[in-house]
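User: I'm writing a tutorial on reading structure tokens. Could you give me a worked example: one chain, its sequence, then its tokens, then a sentence or two explaining what the tokens reveal?
Assistant: Sure. Here is the example chain.
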Amino acid sequence: MNTQLLEVLIVTGPLGSGKTTVVNRLLKREIAEHRKVAVLINEFGTVSVDGALVDAERPELAGIANLVNGCACCSLRGDVVATLAGWCDLPTETRPDRVVLETTGLADPTDLVDLEREPALEGRMKLAGCLAVISCLTPLDHLAQRPLLRHQAGLASLVYISKADLDPSLAIAWEGQLRCQFKNLPLAHSRMGETATTSPDPWCGDIPALPADHERTSAPSFADARSMSVHWDHPVDPEALEALFLRPPGQGELLRAKGIASFAGWPARNDGSDRWAFQVADGRVEILPLPLMPSGELAPRVAVIIGTGLDLTTWRRQLRELERAPSGVKRKVVLG
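And here are its predicted structure tokens:
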């Protein structure tokens, strides 16, 4: 029987805060230090875009598991436990040393910080820390107005204030807000997922105890949010995509958008891939190259939106209208 504890690091934080970028940096560091590391990704909706991004970037992983269409802290908790227990059961030569568990931005980590007490995991895993990633571009008043964000910060053993390079003054303002609310909370500024070499080790965290009056809550709640995915058959217009996501929606609130696309007029790169990952958060559209999958195939083209009160029928039509079929090829029309 393998007596070495499986170390698990929870990575939490609001939608669009930059968790997947941080996760990729963490995985790269573990691989460079010759540890076997696996990743467990929970996404809201039916398509795992973040899983595809990690899979393309980190083919050396000891394991990758995607949990979709549910929340790791509630409806999918049994799947989290089963996945971790399955990794614990592997032979020593293939068993991960560490696991990064990335939660959906709508998850309250309250119900994940007790994983060590699960019968299937007791005495087999160690919760090494809870890293919260909070974008400095998030409005400062969200800390007071959104209970979910306070829970994610309050249960963290370390907070990364992400995108600090985009607005250093806002990063400092967020640091002040967090230090005022949580006196002893370790903090670090991150830029593209990287922090200073002197920053605390996220794997050596001390998770705060829950206060007696702590109640599980979220805002916006998991129950209120809706997601929709659209699979594209053709390249899309990059300028039209940016315009669509930067203008206010006709109704409701767009919490997050992300996906994988090829863009009309953009040639394939030297690595043979014409795919680009796009992320929409903090009023910005970020586009990064996506290499071929480990199988050598191109990642499927897909867009995912998450929001509350959105007109999903209109969004589906608008996303399909972004497609630009090559000359001589008829654009597919999806009925219904």
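What the tokens reveal: The chain is about 25% helix and 25% strand. The chain has a mean pLDDT of 86.
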